[in-house]
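# nightly structure sweep
# worker-07 picked up a monomer target from the shared queue
# config: single-sequence mode, recycle default, output format = structure tokens
# input follows
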Amino acid sequence: SLGALVADVTFTLPNSRLHETEADRIGVELAARAGYDPGGAVSVWRKMSRAGGSSPPALLSTHPSTEQRIRDLEVYAERVRPLVGQR
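# output follows
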């Protein structure tokens, strides 16, 4: 039904994308705290971008676009880089 689609696009999908972004950031921070290069996530997503494949329009996706993920991870990786090697 149209109402369910509107509710999904308005409430569910944005929250799902937000949760994916949060999970990406937590993973990058955990990697840095474990002594790994947090920029590795950026490298992975660039490789996935080059591998290509089709994706739904961002508005209808449960995940952030690859380009958005890369931009966010670049910023967040630099933010947590000082954590590398700290114990």
